[in-house]
Amino acid sequence: MSQSTNPTTQFQTDANRVTADVDRRSFLRSSLRGYQTTRDATQERFLNYESARIAAGDAKWEAIENLDVYLAQFADKLEARGATVHWCSDSEEARDAILDIIKKHDAKSVIKSKCMTTEEIHLNDLLEKEGFEVVESDLGEFIVQLRDEAPYHFVFPAMHLKKEEINTLFQEKLKSINTDDPEELTMVAREVLRQKYLSADIGISGANFGVAETGMISITENEGNARLTTSLPKVHIALMGIEKIIPRLEDLALMLPMLATAGTGQHLTCYNSQLGGPRQDDESDGPVEMHVVLLDNHRTRLLADPEQRDALRCIRCGACLNVCPIFKNVGGHTYGTTYQGPIGSVITPHLRGLKDWKHLSHSSSLCGACSETCPVKIDLHHHLLRNRRDAAGKGQGGLAERTLMLGFTIVMRRPWLYRLTGRLGKLGHVLTKPIHGTRIDPFYAWKKTRDLDDPAKQSFKQYWKSRK
Amino acid sequence: MSRDAILGRIREALSVKTDPHVREVAKQSSHSLPVLANGPDGRTQAVKEFLPFVGESLEDHIAAFNVLSDKLQTEFIVVPTIDSARQTLDQLRQKHQWERVGIHDHELVQSCVDQLPVEFLNTSSNYDAHALEKCDVGISGCDALIAQTASALVTNHSAGGRALSVLPPHHVVVADASQMVTTMADGFAMIREKHHEQWPSFISFITGPSRTADIERVLVLGAHGPKKLTIIMISE
């Protein structure tokens, strides 16, 4: 996963490598099959899951289409409760805001709970460079942090690793006992991290939702690490994308079960906490300061797209990754993005530039499994098509594609040329048969992994004539 | 400055209306569906009518809470009186060899633990987090029990702060049958009424003991929070 190479080349290279690793792929598939079975059973309990999806989608539409009003309300309510809200246009502003807070408190160590937005702004790199100890407390994130890797999946960060690999890692980095048992491995991490919560000066979390009506962030988790991160250190910083807003507190009663069901197949995640402000006068614990860092980072650019603003309704459950045939074959790291899978392919071109990231929209079977599974009904696979359309419209197809399309137009407009090409094509097919799929085949790139059937003896045109 | 800039960009972006086709897709379905009210009413309707059904009576709710608790590995104990809650707590103390117990100023909690022969740490005023970490259990009250999800709804007022219910390895909730409600929305409504918009800074739905499946999707209890969750509900 080299950062210096062009993202398209990196994608192709990594995709080839990962798809050849049959063992890892079947490992991924079997764990995702487990997810699907659990999720299906949980969906069955709903009286009407389809209607619940529409209602959940509607809550996010209302929030996104009135984002100016709700975001301002959210910030005002939070500030009224003693929290500080920081408005950041891009990654740099957000990093600076966070660094300022940490420096102001003369902090040494930072504990983090899972937050993809901090990955988006590369916060850990900066903080470590500045000499702070930064510890990821979510078990999966902790594991990939020890491996110096990016999360593989934005909900299951370490899903690509086998217990034997984690054993080796823990022995090497934590001097832990030799064990392959997931429970023992988890307890090793628990013991290491317990002490960190108690000693950390700053806790950094994300937010799954921002409730406009009451000015609270809502955090969903299973482990309890986010609760500890937001309870024990004296300063709590929450980094949140501006699109996370929902209108009312009661909307959580719908959104939280939907997030859990789609995300992990649980009927509800273990801890769903709403935090509105630092410790109040009549309270006995909690941080003395709460900072909410709101991040735009080109989300408003996506909002300006009247079709694809739809994707800002995403609640980051990860369901579209879990059902995606591309994700299952190329794996999470191949994407080279913060957000993997179909949703990542849709939004990354908006957040980081269409030119460099349009290839993600092409690596899709357009099967629509993502749209079908999305708990808020984002039209994901059509957005992939829209990205393709937009890239082509901007002439970003590259020389080969443009030449091909030009040739296609010339041929399709001239019936005689069309007939001739058909005949030449047949001839070419016969002639290239002996070299099919070899490097001297002019269509090597396409044919190396594909067979091409012999063309029918009779063309459709000939058949149609003979029919009369 | 930045606030105005960001809100300005949002307003400018929203000056172009959402493509009606895209908006429509989010409402379409291949199934025939009941008519859903627009806006907030639709979401209220969804919570009541489309999420899992758990019956209407207290008995139904207790039964549903029980089934889900089994699945979650929450220990759900229904006892008739405060006296029997006291006995249950004493049995738990013996079984798990509690020596240090975290509690808080809460009427029901206080009357259930008053005879426990253990050392107490009260988290209702300033306390030492390291001492709480050394407690064997945290015993707290709650605002509501949610039948639809088998959750205990807590705030820092009903649960002795933010940490009592998450730092010790075992969390015990004591509740009253009158606190059982149907949905999470009912739970929010209760807190809304109790605090008259003066919201506590911390609200949480606790649904089972802490867990993770980050290593090969194998379920492990007690990732960072409590390995055990016991909910004692007094039915009379």
Strand tally of chain B: 12
The portion of residues assigned to helices of chain B is: 25-40%
CATH topology-level name of the domain at 46-297 in chain A: Rossmann fold
Instruction: State the strand order across the main sheet of chain A.
Output: 1-10-7-4-2-3
CATH architecture of the domain at 46-297 in chain A: 3-Layer(aba) Sandwich
**In CATH's first tier, which class of the largest domain in chain B applies?**
Alpha Beta
CATH classification class of the domain at 46-297 in chain A:
Alpha Beta
Second rung of CATH, namely the architecture of the largest domain in chain B: 3-Layer(aba) Sandwich
Defining traits:
heterodimer, A: about 475 residues, alpha/beta, 10 strands, globular, B: about 240 residues, Rossmann fold, 6-stranded parallel sheet, about 35% helix, about 20% strand
Describe what you observe in this structure.
The complex is a heterodimer of chains A (468) and B (236). With 468 residues, chain A is an alpha/beta fold. Among the domains of chain A are: 46-297, NagB/RpiA/CoA transferase-like (Rossmann fold, 3-Layer(aba) Sandwich), CATH 3.40.50.10420; 399-467, no CATH class. Chain A is 53% helix and 10% strand. Chain A has 24 helices and ten strands. Chain A has helices spanning 7-20, 22-45, 49-65, 67-80, 91-104, 116-120, 123-129, 139-146, 163-174, 182-199, 225-229, 252-263, 299-303, 319-322, 325-330, 341-352, 354-357, 359-362, 369-373, 380-393, 398-413, 415-432, 444-447, 460-467, and strands at residues 84-88, 109-112, 133-136, 202-205, 209-211, 216-221, 235-241, 245-246, 271-275, 289-295. In chain A, the strands form two sheets. A six-stranded parallel beta sheet of chain A has the order 1-10-7-4-2-3, sandwiched between helices. In chain A, strands 8-5-6-9 form a four-stranded mixed beta sheet. Chain A is globular. Helix content of chain B is 35%, strand content 21%. Chain B has helices at residues 2-14, 20-25, 40-49, 58-72, 82-96, 107-113, 129-133, 184-195; strands at residues 75-79, 100-103, 119-122, 137-140, 144-146, 151-155, 170-176, 180-181, 202-206, 211-212, 220-221, 228-234. In chain B, the strands form three sheets. Chain B has a six-stranded parallel beta sheet with strand order 1-12-7-4-2-3. A four-stranded mixed beta sheet of chain B has the order 8-5-6-9. In chain B, strand 5 (144-146) and strand 6 form a beta hairpin. The radius of gyration of chain B is 22 Å and the shape is globular. The termini of chain B are far apart. The model of chain B has no long low-confidence stretch (mean pLDDT 95).
